Amino acid sequence: MPQAPQFKQPVPSEPTILTELEAGGHYTQQRWVNLALDGQEADDVSFDQLQLSGVRLQQARLPLLQAVDTRCENVDFAGCVLEKAYVRRVEFQGCRLLGTSLLNADLEDVRFSRCMANMLRIWTSSCRSVRFEHCSLCDASFDGADLSGVVFDTCDLTGADFRNANMKGTDLRGSTITRLQIGTRELAGVIVDPAQAVQLIQLFGVVVRGE
Q1: With a threshold of 0.90, does the pTM exceed it?
Q2: For the chain, what is the radius of gyration of the CA atoms?
Q3: Are 52 and 70 in contact (CB under 8 A)?
Q4: H or E stretch including 121?
Q5: How would you class 64 by CB atoms within 10 Å of its CB: exposed for 0-12, middle for 13-18, buried for 19 or more?
Q6: What is the rounded CA–CA span in Å between residue 71 and residue 202?
Q7: How many other β-carbons are positioned within 10 Å of the β-carbon of residue 71?
Q8: Domain ranges within the chain, ordered by starting residue
Q9: What is the pLDDT of residues 113-140, one digit of tens each?
Q10: DSSP letters along 125-169, please?
Q11: Which of 6, 65, 100, 146 could cross-link with 85 by S-S, CB 3.0 to 4.6 Å?
Q12: Contact assessment for residue 94 and residue 113, using Cβ atoms and an 8 Å cutoff
């Protein structure tokens, strides 16, 4: 189970007023509520012990983002590009991650819960102690990602692409895996339930019949 965000002291009750993100900006111990930060472009931004609620970051480009001990609730990251992000002890709850890109990212102790994350792209990224719960991940792509030990709990993985991913110990039990794109190499070490095992066998053209 991923570690929860750790707040050294309570986040201030008064929301921070912010209209744009600054390159190299360090934002710590703040509460952001309903901020409109769509289309922002800023390198090397740091989030530390933030509470985000209802914030909009559609189409933002934040390369080298560092997010630590942060909780995001109902945040809109649609189309956001987070290249080489460093993410530690972060929770995404009810967030919109349609077409969001985490490229060459480093994720550890990250929890995604009830997120709309269709077409999410996590490419060539390291994911340690990462958990997806009740998320929609239709047509998501994990090309080249290290997903060893990642849990997909009751997620919709229809059409998801796991080709070239390291999936040793990846747990797919309870998730929808219709039209999954996966090869025999990636399947080595994947944890599935009996019904999923039949579906995966059929993906490779094997016909399963009773007596």
Answers
A1: yes
A2: 18
A3: yes
A4: strand 121-123
A5: middle
A6: 40
A7: 20
A8: 49-203
A9: 999 999 999 999 999 999 999 999 999 9
A10: -EEEEEEEES-B-TT-B-TT-B-TT-EEES-B-TT-B-TT-B-TT
A11: 65
A12: yes
Compute the distance between CA of residue 92 and CA of residue 22 in angstroms, rounded to an integer.
Answer: 23
**pLDDT for res 198:** 86
Arithmetic mean of pLDDT, 49-53: 98
Q: What angle do CA 165, 167, 169 make, to 5 degrees?
A: 165
50 CB-contact burial (10 Å; exposed 0-12 / middle 13-18 / buried 19+): buried
The tokens for 35 are 């901020």
49-203 domain in CATH 2.160.20.80? Answer: yes
Task: Answer whether 167's CB lies under 8 Å from 148's CB.
Answer: yes
Q: What is the token pair recorded at 72?
A: 């995001």
Map residue 79 onto helix, strand or coil: coil
Contact yes or no for 93/113 (Cβ under 8 A): yes
Q: Exposed, middle or buried: residue 78 (CB in 10 Å: 0-12, 13-18, 19+)?
A: buried
Other C-beta atoms closer than 10 Å to the C-beta of 114 total 15
The encoded tokens of residue 81 equal: 């590009």
